[in-house]
Amino acid sequence: MHAFRRRNPVVETQNAGNSRNGGAGQKTVAYLRAQGDYGEVDYGDCFARLWQYVKEQKLFSAGIESIVVYHNDPDISKSGDLRCDVCLTIPKGPVAVGPVGVKTIAGGRYAMFVHTGPYVGLGGAYHKIFREWLPRSGCELRDSPGFERYRNNPDRVPAEKLKTEIYIPLK
Predict the structure, then answer these.
(1) Residue environment code for 142-153, b if the CB has 16+ CB neighbours within 10 A, otherwise e
(2) How many CA atoms lie within 13 A of 14 on its CB side?
(3) What is the pLDDT of residues 29-50, one digit of tens each?
(4) Are 6 and 113 in contact (CB under 8 A)?
(5) In this structure, what are the phi and psi dihedrals at residue 79, rounded to the nearest 5 degrees?
(6) What does pTM read for this prediction?
(7) Measuring CA to CA, which residue among 10, 15, 18, 110 is closest to residue 63?
(8) Minimal CA–CA distance to 86: which of 105, 64, 68?
(9) How, if at all, do strands 108-116 and 3-5 pair?
């Protein structure tokens, strides 16, 4: 069973590092692009490769966050066309090396929801957000990709205790 929190989910994310208040702020990330069915992407391998990059480039610092930016809606796009960026926030100024790119995730207004439980339940959380919460909220989507922020490590925490923040960009 999974829990899904949606009470007062709208947050402003203007200041970097405002994560204690549920905000995302503008974030500089190192990322690897993955393409294909979101359920078949090897996120663990992508994060392992990014951590190796952090080690090789001597970029380790406190506060590195694990994020995945999703560019397509799997209910609309063909599974082979789905794109996502597996990211680590890097405060020390990363540089692109080989397949590792660097970009900025914009701050701004987001609705932030917390999903507690296995990652396989995230699809249901998105359906609740877009089919139930959004139409009733009076909010409008911004033309920007949403993202997930992973609050704990699936190698160290049982699946039922995983916490995922879902950020939906709003106008």
Answers:
(1) eebbbbbbbbee
(2) 1
(3) 999 999 998 988 999 999 999 9
(4) yes
(5) -60, -35
(6) 0.86
(7) 18
(8) 68
(9) antiparallel
Q: What is the CA radius of gyration of the chain?
A: 16
- Is residue 165 a contact partner of residue 151, using CB atoms and an 8 Å limit? yes
Rounded distance, CA 112 to CA 63, Å?
19
- Determine the average pLDDT of the residues in 71-98: 90
Quickly count helices (H) and strands (E) in the chain: 3, 9
Place of tokens 């392992």: 48
The closest of 87, 63, 85 to 72, measured between CA atoms, is 85
What local confidence, expressed as pLDDT, does residue 13 receive? Answer: 44
